[in-house]
């Protein structure tokens, strides 16, 4: 867990010029504060995270208190009446202006900060920052639909109206883009948003919301970082109308149970054990194998929609596996600043130990490693960093841990199938149903397979690449509701039907 320090503090809430909220043109990338009602707030207790590529401690950040939570909720509720009545065109333009400053003008600094806290290779960090700006521009012209029905007596208009205060709880694997997706949808629809970053990766979210204070009225967008108590405080708070959470299934279940006490609305984007089906008619085996391997090991396998299981037709299995091994063995593992690095460290020690447990289980059960293996348990960087070399396990038993569980790290099983029905049955044999991919030179065939997969997102001839234009949601235990697209902004709203009777 991140380290706390009850002794270090920068003082209490500091009042600054309200015309600038204290931030304009004064971005210090080594100093961090929670943002409440447009102002920075420190705490008597602080904590810090760790650079996963060096194990060096990072900056101290304040631990939010129950008073901070109450103050943030009160500020959001006070800001909501005015913000919700602000024309949507103005709200959209503010999002774009904020996105330009944060992800374009400050993009290089924000990318560097993201790399320090996550250990991401340079190109992956840059993609995350660029995609965050895309979220802002996408929402610029996005509008909620209205439905109208009329007869001789009355007119019925169905509208989507803001809920009030939304708490956005963000995981550590993509701390910027997952936050900005929830921020854009929440603010565009007239809600006020309180962001809670993971204590493993608090820095980029704290700085992003700090930058946002130049554009949004106090209380509209706030951020609270803290320890393990902060999330439950937000979930239980009666002044919050909506929890939008991305994270593990176990935590999602706890959130849903707690939200039932106040009947809060919830969006839960949870884990996935995404299957990839490679059909026998794939002609470019080498190219497809390289792309499938990228889908397995992108962001060191730390993505909810990473490929977690690969099913390959028996007729091309050996050739495909050999090509996948060659590509995987060529992936460079290392720190963010090193040239050519494709795979960085696991982000935190807790996840590092979990993934090592998956490696250990397969080794102890005699599974066949064809890439990685025993040496993969080393960190690859002497005594520094949470590094694991990408590993492929050839045809482990279907009941094995590596097949049944989400690994969320750089290890993947590859299995064979003799018929499409067998592949579909295997792919659907999971408690999770987030995403899947299908590879075939026959597009119609691939889409027909995709329609039979019990998942929220299907990718044809591509590994999983979430896009802000499309709804991101899961079936089964992969969640409830979703983010992105038109459906994503509807998730931030209540529905109101106005019945207007005509005067006689």
Describe this entry's structure for a reader.
This protein has 504 residues and is α/β, with parallel strands linked by helices. Helices cover 36% and strands 22% of the residues. A 7-stranded mixed sheet has the order 17-18-19-14-13-21-22, with helices on both faces. A hairpin with a 2-residue loop joins strand 2 (34-36) and strand 3. Helix 3 (107-118) crosses helix 4 (122-140), helix 3 runs antiparallel to helix 6 and helix 4 runs parallel beside helix 5. Residues 6-22 have low confidence and may be disordered.
Helix segment tally: 15
How far apart are the first and last residues' alpha carbons, in Å? 68 Å
**Strand tally, please?**
27
Strand order of the largest sheet: 17-18-19-14-13-21-22
Helix content: 25-40%
Mean pLDDT value: 94
Fraction of residues in β-strands: 15-25%
Low-confidence stretches: 6-22
How would a crystallographer describe the biggest sheet? Answer: 7 strands, mixed
Short description:
The protein is α/β, with parallel strands linked by helices and 504 residues long.
Write the layout of secondary structure elements.
Elements: E1 3-5, E2 34-36, E3 39-41, E4 46-48, E5 61-62, H1 66-85, H2 88-105, H3 107-118, H4 122-140, E6 147-150, E7 154-162, E8 165-169, H5 177-188, E9 192-196, H6 203-212, E10 221-223, H7 230-236, E11 242-246, H8 249-262, E12 265-269, E13 274-278, H9 285-297, E14 307-313, H10 317-329, E15 332-333, E16 341-343, H11 349-364, E17 368-371, E18 391-394, H12 401-404, E19 411-417, H13 420-428, E20 432-433, E21 435-439, H14 443-451, E22 457-460, E23 472-473, E24 475-476, E25 479-480, E26 482-483, H15 485-490, E27 493-501
């Amino acid at each position: 867990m991140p380290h706390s320090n009850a002794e270090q503090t920068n003082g209490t809430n500091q009042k600054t010029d309200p015309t600038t909220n204290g931030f304009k043109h004064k971005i210090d990338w080594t100093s961090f504060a929670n943002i409440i009602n447009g102002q920075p707030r420190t705490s008597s207790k602080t904590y810090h995270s760790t650079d996963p590529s060096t194990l060096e401690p990072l900056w101290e950040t304040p631990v939010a208190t129950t008073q901070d939570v109450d103050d943030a909720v009160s500020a959001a509720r006070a800001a909501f009446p005015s913000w919700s009545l602000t024309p949507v065109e103005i709200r959209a333009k503010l999002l774009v202006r904020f996105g330009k400053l944060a992800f374009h003008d400050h993009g290089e600094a924000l990318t560097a900060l993201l790399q320090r806290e996550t250990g991401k290779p340079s190109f992956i960090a840059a993609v995350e920052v660029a995609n965050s700006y895309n979220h802002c521009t996408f929402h610029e012209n996005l509008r909620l639909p209205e439905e109208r029905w009329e007869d001789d007596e009355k007119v019925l208009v169905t509208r989507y109206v803001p809920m009030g205060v939304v708490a956005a709880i963000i995981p550590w694997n993509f701390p910027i883009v997952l936050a900005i997706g929830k921020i854009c949808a929440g603010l565009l629809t007239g809600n006020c948003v309180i962001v809670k970053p993971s204590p493993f990766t608090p820095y980029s979210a704290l700085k992003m919301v700090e930058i946002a204070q130049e554009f949004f009225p106090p209380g509209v967008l706030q951020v609270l970082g803290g320890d393990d108590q902060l999330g439950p405080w937000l979930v239980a708070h009666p002044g919050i109308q909506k929890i939008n959470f991305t994270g593990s299934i176990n935590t999602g279940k706890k959130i849903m149970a707690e939200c039932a006490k106040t009947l809060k609305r919830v969006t839960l984007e949870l884990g996935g054990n995404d299957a990839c089906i490679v059909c026998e008619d794939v002609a470019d085996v080498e190219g497809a194998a390289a792309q499938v391997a990228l889908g397995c090991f992108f962001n060191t396998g730390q993505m909810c929609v990473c490929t977690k299981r690969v099913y390959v037709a028996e007729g091309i299995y050996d050739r495909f596996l050999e090509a996948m091994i060659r590509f995987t063995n060529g992936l460079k593992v290392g720190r963010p600043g090193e040239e050519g690095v494709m795979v960085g460290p696991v982000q935190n020690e807790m996840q590092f130990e979990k993934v090592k447990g998956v490696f250990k289980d397969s080794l102890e059960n005699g599974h066949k490693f064809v890439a990685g293996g025993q040496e993969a348990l080393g960190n690859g960087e002497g005594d520094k960093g949470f590094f694991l070399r990408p590993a492929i396990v050839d045809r482990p038993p279907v009941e094995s841990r590596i097949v049944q569980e989400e690994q969320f790290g750089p290890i993947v099983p590859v299995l064979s199938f003799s018929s499409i029905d067998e592949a579909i049955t295997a792919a659907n044999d999971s408690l999770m149903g987030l995403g899947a991919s299908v590879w075939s030179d026959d597009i119609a065939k691939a889409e027909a397979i995709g329609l039979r997969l019990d998942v929220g997102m299907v990718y044809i001839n591509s590994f999983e690449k979430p896009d802000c234009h499309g709804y991101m949601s899961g079936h089964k235990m992969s969640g409830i509701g979703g983010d992105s697209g038109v459906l994503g902004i509807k998730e931030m709203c209540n529905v109101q039907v106005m019945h207007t009777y005509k005067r006689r």
